[in-house]
Amino acid sequence: MKKDIEIPLVQNVTLAVVREGLPGLEEWKVMLINNNEFPIENTLVASQGYGEKEGEKQKTTVLRHFLETVPAHGHAVVEPIDPGLFHLNNEYWVSYYIGTQIYDKRFVFVPDSICTDNLIFIKELEMEGVLHS
To answer: Is 54's pLDDT higher than 70?
Structure first.
């Protein structure tokens, strides 16, 4: 039964949207950060944007990304992201293994949360970005 399924807590794994490059020529990327003392394996990230603009519903295609191993205290690029999507909810479902146990967590960057006003220095990446809390 559903109540008998153990759902382990995701700890020390998060996402950030970072800005690289010169002003006006910058690129934005979604990064997965593993702050654990051990690698995470067979990571699958499904991304999708959804929301409204001027009263019309908008939705992006679901993209799936496979990251074989994200090292301990490491990070990996998930995907580039177009600033034209920042007005949407940008959702990322992250699933990965530690040993034989699967972990799963949903991260959502709410509309307009990815912006220059919300940039902070992310020490794990040594760059500025919007860190999901």
So the answer is: yes
